Amino acid sequence: MPFALTAYEAGRSLGTIALAVLFVLLVLRAFDVLPRKKPTPHGKLTDLGVAAILGVLLTVTFFNGRADAWDGDEGRQMKAGFIAGCESSAGSVLDCECVFAELTSEAPYDTPEGFAQLKEPVQQATESGDVSQIPAAYFSAVQDCAA
């Protein structure tokens, strides 16, 4: 299975990288490695103070581990429920874990809240028999993960 970041993971990674770059730039500017456009009386102290705050944020981010939207109780239950339901009805035809991974690899379904948006159109399509109400991402995931 190819490595793919969800939108949430990509945003989190990008945010962490931006914090790290800003931290380095502020430290370099505080020690006059990078020049200031306009010298200020307390510029070095301000740069070091902001860098210290960013350092704390980065430390918390790195030691907090990967905070994934699916790691919470709601996310784990939703994933387990989806896979169990899928396997009970289509397990011999579909790789249900693959379907879940495909669906949750892109917004808006990359968080439990976004994934919950699938419930209503799928339920309506089941009741009415009108599959045109099901989002295209669902069809794409099923097609990609057919056994």
Folded structure, characterized:
The relative contact order is 0.11. The chain is elongated, with a radius of gyration of 23 Å. α1 runs antiparallel to α2 (43-63) and α4 crosses α7. The chain folds into 2 domains: 7-67; 70-144, no CATH class. It is 64% helix and 0% strand. The chain has 7 helices and no strands.
**Proportion of strand residues:** under 5%
Task: Catalogue the unreliable spans.
Answer: none
For the largest beta-sheet, the strand count, sense and barrel status come to: none
Which term fits the overall shape? elongated
Report mean pLDDT, rounded to a whole number. 82
> What's the alpha carbon Rg, rounded to whole Å?
23 Å
End-to-end C-alpha gap: 14 Å
Structural class: mainly alpha
The oligomeric state of the chains shown is single chain
Total helical segments: 7
Q: Helix content range of the residues, please? A: 55-70%
- Secondary-structure element order, N to C: HHHHHHH
Question: What is the number of domains?
Answer: 2
Beta strand count: 0
Topology record:
Layout (H helix, E strand, L loop, with lengths): L6 H24 L12 H21 L9 H18 L5 H8 L8 H4 L3 H10 L7 H9 L3
Helix pairs in contact: 1-2, 4-7
Task: Kindly summarize this structure in a few lines.
This protein has 147 residues and is mainly α. The chain is 64% helix and 0% strand. It has helices at residues 7-30, 43-63, 73-90, 96-103, 112-115, 119-128, 136-144.
Name a few traits of the molecule.
147 residues, mainly alpha, 7 helices
